[in-house]
Write a structure and sequence with these properties.
The protein is mainly alpha-helical and 105 residues long. It contains four helices and no strands.
Length: 105
C-alpha cells in the first residue's frame, strides 16, 4: 500500500473552526433583523440604501468573528482566503434571505 508524502492533517481545531464559519453564516437572518431594527431606530434607513442594511452590514458583522479567529490560527494568506470565503458566503446567504423578504411579504 503506497502512502502519499503529503497528508492532510485536519485536527479538532480545524473542524471546530469550520463549524464556527458555518454557524456564523447561518446566523445571517437574525443579524439582518437586528440591522434593520438598529438602522430604523436610529433613523439612518432614510439615508442608507436597503442593500447596505440587508446585505453588506450583516455580512460584515457575521464575518468578523471567523476573521479574527482565522488571523490568530493561520498565516496571513490563509486568513485572508478564509475571510474572503466567509464574506462571500455571507453575502450570498444575505441576498437569498433579502430576496425572500420581498417574495414573502
Amino acid at each position: 500500500m503506497a502512502t502519499s508524502s503529503k497528508t492532510l492533517n485536519v485536527g479538532v481545531r480545524d473542524v471546530g473552526f469550520s463549524l464556527l464559519c458555518i454557524v456564523s453564516v447561518a446566523a445571517i437572518l437574525p443579524v439582518q433583523f437586528v440591522s434593520l431594527i438598529v438602522f430604523d431606530t436610529i433613523g439612518l434607513d432614510q439615508f442608507i440604501s436597503s442593500t447596505v442594511i440587508y446585505t453588506v452590514v450583516p455580512a460584515v458583522v457575521v464575518t468578523a468573528i471567523p476573521a479574527i479567529v482565522a488571523a490568530r490560527q493561520y498565516n496571513r494568506r490563509g486568513s485572508r482566503v478564509i475571510t474572503a470565503a466567509v464574506f462571500i458566503a455571507a453575502i450570498l446567504a444575505s441576498v437569498l434571505m433579502w430576496s425572500g423578504f420581498f417574495i414573502i411579504g
